[in-house]
Each structure stands twice: as C-alpha cells, then as structure tokens.
Amino acid sequence: MVSDTGEPDEPVRVIVLNDRPESANSLTFGVMAELQAAVESAGDRAILLLAKGKSFCSGLDRFDVLKAIVTEESCERPLERLLALYSTILRYEPLTVCVVQGEAVGGGVGLAACFDCVFALPEAVMTIPFGAYVPLARVLIPVLNLRRVRFGFQDTDDWIGKSLPAGEAQGRQLVNEIIHRDELNDADAPRELTRRARRNARPIDPVALARCESGFEQAKEAALKAEVGFAIGVGLIHNILGSLIHGLNPDRGK
After folding, report:
1. The domain that contains 118 carries what CATH number?
2. Largest CB tally within 10 Å, which of 11, 72, 142, 208?
3. How far apart are CA 253 and CA 20, in angstroms?
C-alpha cells in the first residue's frame, strides 16, 4: 500500500508492507517489484516504510526461493531481485526512513539496513539466522556493515546466527532510535518521524556504497556456488515427496 502526504514542507511517501501479514510479510517477487517501483517513482519525497502484523519482514519468500531452485536449478533470480531492491533504496537521494515494529528476519534485516534512519519499537527483534543456507545470509553482511561505517564503526563478520532485541540492534547501529507505538498513531506521524530522521541520518560515502555493492556481487557468487549441494538436497526431497504422493495415489497423473 502506497500513499503520499500533501504537506509541501515535508512531502512523504508512506509505503506499508501488508501483502501477507500471516506469512510475516515475506518478500515475494511481486512484493519486491512493488517496493522498488514505489521508491523509483517517489520523486523528491521522503520515504517512510511501515509494516502491518506482528512481524516487520521475514526476508525472501521461502517458496519463491525453493521454486526457483527446483524449476530453474538456481536461486540467482530471487537474489538478484533482492539486491536490486537494496541498491535502489541505498541510492535514493531524498531521505529514507523505516519503522521495525516486530521481528525482522534475514533479508528483512537487510531491507531495514538500507534505510537512512531506522526506528524500532521496544518489542522489535532483528534476526540473522544460522541454518542450512548460511551463504544466503552472508549476502546481507555488506549492507549491515555499510550502516556501521556510516556511523563511524568498523566492519564486522559477527552477524550470522544473531537475534538482536531492539536495544542490542541499536548498539550495533542497525537501529537509530527506539520509539513507542503511540508515536505511530498520530495523524502527523509521517512528517514528525521524517523530521526526526533528518537529525539522525548520516550520508552514504560513495566509496563505501560502491564497496557494499561489490560485496553484494561477491556474496551472491559465493551463494550460487554453495547452492549446488543445497539444490541437490532440495531435488532429492522433491523426488521423495513425489514418490510418496504417487505411492499413496497410484492413479495420480494418469
């Protein structure tokens, strides 16, 4: 959902992630395309990203990723779409602001990290999972470290497997300021949050941004190399499930 406020002194485009709150607002191909289009067409407005439901964003939609691996034998397309969205937000020159109101996971943490200013509610949690597909999580490291560099801190690889409450996320420079839910209920909230964000935001150094985008490509290539074994495992599971279904219903497909 996209709406534009009409105040001439602080025009704001408000984007709300509410495609599928029951799926924790995962990033399907459609959602990523809509988000990118909303940013690209915002003109000179500040952008404010909000989310509906208990979660902010759970990252790449697992079904889209599995479908790409099973049908295309690669997760390159969802990765490219995600990284294109990240770069579009990072390169948007007017102010970008987001509010993390619940749990952000994986690519959802990376999405928030692309914004100039990140507000979080006290109950927010940012999780970079440690699981069977760590190379995919490593794609996030360049943008997480870019936020640290923007605020005068050094890079770190200590991201994978972390689940950070709002206070700890703020200590790692993933959150600028913790706010309360009541502050979102005011009709003037978009304008007030963008005004506060201007005081917190830091410009992106072009060299640091170029290094981040180079890191995206390197991490993507590493993920694509590592996915071979993952794809084989998914293919085996797919075949086993297919055999089981056929065994339960031998007439299926005739």
Report:
1. 3.90.226.10
2. 142
3. 32
- Picking from 88, 61, 99, the residue whose alpha carbon sits closest to that of residue 185 is 99
Q: At residue 79, what is the residue type? A: L
Given a contact cutoff of 8 angstroms between Cβ atoms, the answer to whether 136 and 220 are in contact is no
Counting beta carbons within 10 angstroms of the beta carbon of residue 102, is it exposed (0 to 12), middle (13 to 18) or buried (19 or more)? buried
Q: Mark out the alpha helices in the chain (DSSP H runs).
A: 29-40, 62-72, 76-90, 107-113, 134-138, 141-150, 166-171, 182-185, 189-200, 206-248
| Reported pTM | 0.85
Q: What one-character-per-residue DSSP string does 150-184 give?
A: HTT-----TTTTEEEEHHHHHHTTS-SEE--THHH
Q: Which two tokens stand for residue 180?
A: 């309360």
Q: Structurally, how many domains does the chain consist of?
A: 1
Residue 174 gets the label, from left (phi > 0), alpha (psi -120 to 50) or beta, of: alpha
Range of the domain at 146: 2-248
Sign of CA dihedral 76, 81, 82, 84: positive
pLDDT of residue 13: 93
Beta-carbon contacts of 205 under 8 Å, excluding residues fewer than 6 positions away, are: 149, 150
125: which strand partners? 103, 165
